[in-house]
Design brief:
The chain starts with a strand and ends in a 43-residue tail after the last helix. By secondary structure, the chain is of the alpha+beta class. Strands 1-2 form a two-stranded antiparallel sheet. Helix content is 18%, strand content 19%.
Length: 83
């Protein structure tokens, strides 16, 4: 889905906002923020991305399963990203 902002009004039905998009995909955004925060925490000798050419002894992998926003009151909308 990339940068599309999706919403759901009914179960099992997704729709996309036509005039609104994420500037970058939520997965890339979360990955960049997590990498930045791990580097600034100074808990590790290095925090590398998949694009870095250095070799490492350990690899931490993960992914974004659900990226959602719940609206208060009657309406409930969820946003998610998937590959």
């Amino acid at each position: 889905m990339g940068t599309s902002m999706l919403f759901r009004n009914r179960p099992f039905q997704r729709e996309a906002y036509h005039e609104h998009r994420w500037r970058v995909s939520p997965a890339d955004m979360v990955t960049d923020f997590l990498r930045r925060d791990l580097r600034h925490a100074d808990l590790f000798q290095a925090v590398l991305s998949a694009r870095d050419i250095e070799e490492s002894r350990f690899i931490l992998q993960g992914g974004v399963k659900n990226f959602s926003n719940r609206m208060k009151e009657k309406a409930v909308m969820r946003f998610w990203w998937s590959r």
